[in-house]
């Protein structure tokens, strides 16, 4: 299957992308991973992307698209892939369509993880990270530490990242609504969008997504 995964910040895209890709035996291709891989390998595209990032500028669509094209042409993506964070806007979605058409491929589904804005803000703004080990993550509502402000694992101080502050989260959501959400309508016009609720336990959401993709695939 060839799938695009979309949803607002805090909807659990990263977690679900990893789980779904594993269950479907296809590679999980995320924009962040593409940038990191190209920059660490010092590819021409990586050097170009880094030059924009170092200057504090956004990486142009054509660079992101070229990285995605290169990754989708790798042997492990022959039977499909799951795109996470790309396309990020309608112009990238149009470029992806052109690319797939050229390669005689097509998307099977666009999985839209839906979550109410207040829930998204609550999820992200409530996160607390351990200063000693950032892999230790707690939540003021869903995963409280035994002692407030103290990591259960190593005793490190728990803090809220600047990116997780409520004002910042709401700004990120504004960017999502303005830039990325329009691709849902773009793909709805093609009959590709499958919308599921991102609320509930991780396993529940994964099961919901697999069932929705199976139904969509059967109907295709």
TrEMBL record:
Gene3D superfamilies: P-loop containing nucleotide triphosphate hydrolases (3.40.50.300). AMP binds at residues 31, 36, 57-59, 85-88, 92, 161, 172. Keywords: ATP-binding, Cytoplasm, Kinase, Nucleotide biosynthesis, Nucleotide-binding, Transferase. GO terms for cellular component: cytoplasm. It comes from the Bacteria. InterPro entries: Adenyl_kin_sub, Adenylat/UMP-CMP_kin, Adenylat_kinase_CS, Adenylate_kinase_lid-dom, P-loop_NTPase. It catalyses: AMP + ATP = 2 ADP. PROSITE patterns: ADENYLATE_KINASE. ATP binds at residues 10-15, 127, 137-138, 200. GO terms for biological process: AMP salvage. The keyword Hydrolase does not apply. Catalyzes the reversible transfer of the terminal phosphate group between ATP and AMP. Plays an important role in cellular energy homeostasis and in adenine nucleotide metabolism. Consists of three domains, a large central CORE domain and two small peripheral domains, NMPbind and LID, which undergo movements during catalysis. The LID domain closes over the site of phosphoryl transfer upon ATP binding. Assembling and dissambling the active center during each catalytic cycle provides an effective means to prevent ATP hydrolysis. Monomer. This is Adenylate kinase. It comes from Streptomyces glaucescens. The lineage of its organism: Bacteria, Bacillati, Actinomycetota, Actinomycetes, Kitasatosporales.
